[in-house]
């Protein structure tokens, strides 16, 4: 997969150099997840003084950024298929988290135009698809707002942050503020970590965190709480026939099959097994068909596509990837959409080896990643009685079903 391309039109390109050394953002640039190019309008001037500003028509204080060098700089930038041009200006639409998600999901290139001086020639606005503001205040230029956008976008790209779940439930991801966080020690100067967080009950923890997010938002940002309440009301699905009842549940089905080949590991449910003939499952990742079927079931329940959409088989980032880590990202996506997992059930179709001794270990691995109790995870194994590709030991397959419940509507 090609890196996400960021092009910045700025009179001070050196201001963006520190981004290459900025923690996970810098590592994302270094590893090729994203690439940053700067374009100085001064390089596109035609006069001997490289003039990029002029006095405003009609008089007034300050200087105005000229259109010619800005147009020339933007027009010299290579155009990718899904490009979006943003103009950073105090007059733009206020930036929010959903904008960052939208740009990551819908585009593979962002061009950011930074204003400077008193303002820019009005005709420059015609270059932009969107005008963006980071707040009701004025800065000397658009560089700091552009860096804010870059930081917010790059951290959402797959592979930038260690686990997708760390992006989940954070402030503004779904309007609500983030829940409180605690780490060791459990008791610090009489301030004690809530018992529920130390209980090991993942369902109770998820419920407590959601309640805290709602309470914190209501107290600290009542404007956001009203917006969230309105969204919850409008997003509640209703049955149109024979009266209306809230649709609080979703069911999804998943299926996956992989070929058995020599020289590959055999991993099912995160458990490494030994095949009598030394065979393993072929695939771009670790080819864990059980986990892959389960991920497809979760995505299918919310009509979010299949795992190939999120982890393309031609993307080197997922080569040899641990499927349980990919499952964590899918679970985070499900929760980000406002749903919780109630239970899952799966069957693995394989002739050999015997899977029964390993079923509980598989269930435990899955329950831990799904954030549910062990008894909410079903895993079964069967043979195909010598029939089909599984019966001929050409491959192994798995089918899964997942039941989801909408958070906050119980």
Automatic annotation (TrEMBL):
Q: Where is this site: Transition state stabilizer?
A: 284, 383
Q: Name one GO cellular component term.
A: cytosol
Kindly tell me the pathway this chain contributes to.
Isoprenoid biosynthesis; isopentenyl diphosphate biosynthesis via DXP pathway; isopentenyl diphosphate from 1-deoxy-D-xylulose 5-phosphate: step 4/6
**Binding residues annotated for S-adenosyl-L-methionine, in chain numbering:** 115, 134-139
Annotated ranges, domain 2-C-methyl-D-erythritol 2,4-cyclodiphosphate synthase? 249-404
What top-level branch of life does the organism fall under?
A: Bacteria
Residues bound to a divalent metal cation = 256, 258, 292
Residues reported in the UniProt entry to bind 4-CDP-2-C-methyl-D-erythritol 2-phosphate: 256-258, 284-285, 306-308, 382-385, 392
| Key word S-adenosyl-L-methionine present | yes
Major place of residence: cytoplasm
EC number(s) given by UniProt: 4.6.1.12, 2.1.1.228
Give the reactions, separated by semicolons, that this protein catalyses: 4-CDP-2-C-methyl-D-erythritol 2-phosphate = 2-C-methyl-D-erythritol 2,4-cyclic diphosphate + CMP; guanosine(37) in tRNA + S-adenosyl-L-methionine = N(1)-methylguanosine(37) in tRNA + S-adenosyl-L-homocysteine + H(+)
- Give the family this protein belongs to, as stated in its UniProt record: Belongs to the RNA methyltransferase TrmD family. Belongs to the IspF family.
Q: Which PANTHER family match?
A: TRNA (GUANINE-N(1)-)-METHYLTRANSFERASE
Cite the record's note on assembly. Answer: Homotrimer. Homodimer.
Give the protein's recorded name: Multifunctional fusion protein
Q: Which organism is it from?
A: Prochlorococcus marinus (strain MIT 9313)
């Amino acid at each position: 997969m090609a890196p996400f391309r960021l092009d910045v039109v700025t009179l001070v390109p050196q201001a963006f150099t520190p981004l290459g050394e900025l923690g996970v953002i810098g590592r994302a640039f270094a590893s090729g997840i994203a690439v940053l190019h700067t374009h100085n309008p001064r390089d596109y001037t035609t006069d001997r003084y490289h003039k990029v500003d002029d006095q405003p028509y009609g008089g007034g204080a300050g200087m105005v950024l000229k259109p010619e060098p800005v147009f020339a700089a933007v027009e010299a930038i290579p155009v990718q298929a899904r490009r979006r041009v943003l103009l950073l200006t105090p007059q733009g639409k206020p930036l929010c988290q959903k904008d960052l998600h939208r740009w990551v999901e819908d585009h593979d290139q962002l061009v950011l135009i930074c204003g400077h001086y008193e303002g820019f020639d009005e005709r420059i606005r015609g270059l932009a698809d969107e005008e963006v503001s980071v707040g009701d205040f004025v800065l000397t230029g658009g560089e700091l707002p552009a860096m804010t956008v870059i930081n917010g976008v790059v951290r959402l790209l797959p592979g930038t942050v260690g686990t997708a779940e760390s992006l989940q439930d954070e402030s503004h991801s779904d309007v609500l503020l983030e829940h409180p966080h605690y780490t060791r020690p459990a008791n610090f100067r009489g301030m004690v970590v809530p018992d529920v967080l130390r209980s090991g009950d993942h369902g109770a923890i998820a419920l407590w965190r959601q309640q805290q997010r709602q309470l914190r938002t209501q107290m600290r940002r009542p404007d956001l709480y009203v917006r969230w309440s309105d969204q919850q009301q409008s997003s509640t699905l209703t049955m149109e026939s024979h009266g209306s009842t809230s649709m609080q549940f979703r069911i999804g089905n998943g299926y996956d099959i992989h070929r058995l080949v020599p020289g590959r590991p055999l991993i099912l449910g995160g458990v490494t097994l030994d095949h009598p003939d030394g065979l393993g499952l072929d695939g771009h990742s670790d080819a864990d068909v059980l986990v892959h079927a389960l991920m497809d079931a979760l995505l299918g329940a919310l009509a979010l596509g299949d795992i190939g959409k999120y982890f393309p088989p031609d993307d080197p980032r997922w080569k040899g990837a641990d499927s349980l880590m990919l499952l964590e990202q899918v679970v985070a996506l499900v929760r980000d959409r406002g749903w919780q997992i109630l239970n899952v059930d799966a069957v693995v179709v394989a002739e050999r080896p015997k899977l029964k001794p390993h079923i509980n270990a598989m269930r435990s691995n899955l329950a831990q990643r799904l954030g549910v109790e062990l008894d909410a995870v079903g895993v079964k194994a069967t043979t195909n009685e010598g029939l089909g590709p599984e019966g001929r030991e050409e491959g192994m397959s798995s089918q899964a079903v997942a039941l989801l419940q909408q958070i906050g509507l119980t």
